[in-house]
Write a structure and sequence with these properties.
2 copies of one chain form a homodimer. Chain A has about 140 residues and is mostly helical. The first copy, chain A, has one domain: Arc Repressor Mutant, subunit A (Orthogonal Bundle). Chain A is about 55% helix and about 5% strand. Chain A has 6 helices and 2 strands, in the order αααββααα. Chain A has a two-stranded antiparallel ribbon. In chain A, helix 1 packs across helix 3, helix 1 packs across helix 4 and helix 2 crosses helix 3. The two termini of chain A are about 30 Å apart. Chains A and B meet through helix 1, helix 2 and helix 5 of A and helix 1, helix 2 and helix 5 of B. Chain A binds a DNA duplex (30 and 30 nucleotides) through helix 3.
DNA sequence: TTGTACTGTAATATTTTTTATTACAGATAA
DNA sequence: TTATCTGTAATAAAAAATATTACAGTACAA
């Protein structure tokens, strides 16, 4: 149960719907029933990728750093860095087994391909597109 | 850290490499350093989808139910039913917020699209293909 | 210049999920 | 009838995600 992508997308949606305004982590957290600190953590990632800007102090808050047509959901996905879609083995396989010895490499390669497919799909959708679905 | 797909793929690889033999959960678990009960749990899912067969009793074990050319990694992915690639919000958003009210629907739709992209990619690779990569 | 309302961040606790372990009933072959 | 396997449940342990608390730093405004 990992809601990081959902938090990031929710905030970007709010920012897109209220351009020019600075939204606080408290306000945003209230809209999605989540802890404000968690919002600030995700915002740090989005800012590190140049998707949003933040302002400290009274009257501080978050705003889009780019026009919403320039932000794709792939950017969001890469910013929040979810765990791999195919999962990840906890233990290393037995190196004495011919299969165990090699399977890690092949599974890694496969995981890369799947991540690429996800990014490709998400790169076709901008925040602008996503928000346009709303009434 | 979710290794269910890895376990399933590892077992199918071993079964493919040793056709005709029945492999026990203990043997397989040893090849991937994982608990045998966990292997049996994944095998239950694969069997429910008709990918493998199992035999109880002494000399029991697991075998492929189909030729490896007929089993795609998409079949495996669907059989093990991983959590959604984009994650999932734990809490429901605030229904009094215009965005919170609707975003669930749009995120669900997006999740479906991404899962479809993953399945499409994985459906191009059979277990036979995967195993052929090994030395 | 002092109070207020934010961000930024760390530390810790709680909750949830995943994996491991233990146990045992039932099946099947030697 | 004994040994070795699957099938499954129940429980424990480990890992990950989220929530909470706390507080330093920043910026605005009265």
């Amino acid at each position: 149960m990992n809601g990081q992508f959902q938090i990031a997308t929710h905030v970007l949606t709010l920012l897109c719907k209220q351009p020019g305004e600075l939204l606080s982590s408290d306000y945003v957290a209230g809209s999605m029933n989540v802890n404000p600190v968690l919002v600030r953590k995700e915002m740090r990632k989005l800012r590190a990728c140049g998707l949003i800007e933040s302002k400290e102090g009274k009257t501080g808050g978050y705003s889009l750093a780019l026009p919403p047509q320039k932000i794709t959901l792939a950017d969001v996905y890469k910013a929040v860095k979810l765990p791999p879609a195919l999962g990840q083995a906890k233990n290393k396989p037995n190196p004495d087994c011919p299969v165990g010895k090699q399977i890690g490499t092949h599974l890694d390669h496969l995981a890369d391909d799947v991540e690429a497919a996800i990014v490709k799909k998400l790169s076709t959708i901008t925040i602008f597109d996503f928000v346009n679905q709303f009434d």
